[in-house]
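Chapter review. Work through the record for DNA modification/repair radical SAM protein before attempting the end-of-chapter questions.
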Amino acid sequence: MNTQLKLAILADAAKYDASCASSGTERRDSLGGRGLGSTEGMGICHSYAPDGRCISLLKILLTNFCQYDCLYCVNRVTSNVPRARFSVDEVVQLTLDFYRRNCIEGLFLSSGIIQSPDYTMEQVVEVARVLREEHDFRGYIHLKTIPDAAPELLARAGRYADRLSINIELPTEAGLATLAPEKDAPAIKRSMARLRVHIDDAKEAAQASEAVVSMPRTKPKRAKAERFAPAGQSTQMIVGADAADDRAILATSAQLYGSYRLRRVYYSAFSPIPDAASSLPLKAPPLVREHRLYQADWLMRFYGFGHEEIVASGDGLLRLDVDPKLAWALAHRERFPVDLNRAPRELLLRVPGLGAKAVERVLAARRVRRLRSDDLKRLRVPLGKALPFLLLPDHRPRAIDDAQLAAKLQPAPVQGALFA
Ligand code: SF4
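Structure tokens for DNA modification/repair radical SAM protein:
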């Protein structure tokens, strides 16, 4: 099979993985003529798969052969899809070639499990090792790790990769046991815990290394501590393949952020796959559900919301018609209006339309003078959304009922595409 055909199969097989963001790593580049690549995004062609996912990294599987039978996965052993396998050298060459052509900013490498978890992980790590050690590749590398692989292999992976991820796959252990019986939820969490320890140790070592002056009249430099996945670890959860509701999904995310200090939890709306098992839904969940989960995730990480307060409805699902912050505000009208010039940061962060940056600007500006609605306009706060919840010297919101307010704040309906 030629490389082009393998690439077509193995890039297509990787598109179901949503966790391709390359943020958060250390700055590395090849300015000065040494090495190849950069972790900065400049000059990179960002492209999107037909389903809207970012594929700006070379996002491939080493192989889509797999001995496991996870029902939601197109690569499972019982799936009737064309199979292919790259060698380590082929992946290395492809990465370098695409990088030189400015098509990618790095590599996202995952794999089906062949022979054994250790054997597969060794191959994945070898790709990263060859890129870093033999080609001095300084671009971004994200390796998907295999939770059942030996801890030493995970430790080696962290030396070469910017980010490591282990997919939690499903929000509940019961869901995992039903849809991916060969996967072991405690083993996944054990591996996440190991990665967390390595990442924390590397950070502590970097902070503890003392700056030394090696030559007279030179700037003191810190000795380089051994790096370990500087962009941290992340995971992915499939949404809509099992019966878990948004409340359960957010509770799992909160636990993962708290216990393993993950950088990101990615939510991937389940895509129906060819020859799907009868226990899987026939239809994908609406993509807007995935979007609402990302918004809710943002609220937990940057806006001080607890996971338990974000989903208000009895069915455990986020509202699809309005974003979760607005939904919370509509369900807690008694907490509003908030006085923009007096309210504490925590309360301002809960005002719909006020983003985290806007809140910081408001806090800085109101130290100097009392803010009015014109000031909000200058801060580019969407007035239509924020004003019904704010009290200002020149504005007092009109009392209108919840239904009217929700209708007023919903985005204007868009004409559906005829051929979508
Ligand atoms: S182990 Fe990974 S590649 Fe293999 S079937 Fe399960 S999800 Fe798919």
